[in-house]
Write a structure and sequence with these properties.
Length: 177
């Protein structure tokens, strides 16, 4: 287990399409999951995708616990999601602020589907099949975008709603994804 450094926007590895995981039952896969968890916790992140630590595999993790530092953050169960398939359950789209561990210190207003279904496997090979809305829906769309080489600034439709967190929201702290 180890805390890895998170790649930053501009690194070409963040723009690659990730490959499917073929085998879950390997020491390499287990240490990848542990490294991702260690890194997300060390960075106080709400989510992390494997490409962000330089591993081009279809693995994302996310989760938000109640934390007085982030009173507005909605709780999301800790989830390891492998080889995800994501489908919108509505055409309804909402814009809201997002940040990203690969774009540190910034926030932007990003349109996302309000309700999605995601399927895949957890780290033990158990099937995951969930329909979600709210921040849970936003964070899973953000993380799955990383597997397609898409960073949230590429989805911003109004670039006047993109800037430095300390300027946009003085004195506030946010979790990044
Ligand atoms: Ni991100």
């Amino acid at each position: 287990m180890a805390i890895k450094s998170v790649l930053k926007m501009g690194d070409p590895r963040l723009l690659q399409v990730a490959e499917k995981v073929e085998k879950l039952d390997t020491p390499e896969f287990k240490s990848l999951i542990q490294d991702m968890r260690d890194t997300m916790e060390a960075e106080n992140g709400a989510g992390l995708a494997a490409p962000q630590i330089g591993v081009g595999l279809q693995v994302v993790i996310f989760g938000v616990k109640k934390n007085p530092r982030y009173p507005d953050a909605e709780e999301v169960p800790y989830t390891v999601l492998v080889n995800p398939i994501l489908k919108p359950l509505t055409q309804s789209i909402k814009e809201d602020w997002e940040g990203c561990l690969s774009v540190p210190g910034m926030r932007g207003m990003v349109p996302r589907f309000t309700k999605v279904c995601y399927q895949g496997f957890d780290q033990f090979g158990e099937i995951i099949d969930r329909s979600v809305d709210g921040f849970h829906s936003r964070v899973v769309q953000h993380e799955c975008d990383h597997l397609q080489g898409i960073l949230y600034p590429m989805r911003i439709t109004n670039l006047s709603k993109f800037g430095f967190t300390e300027v946009l929201f003085p004195g506030e702290t946010f979790m990044e994804e």
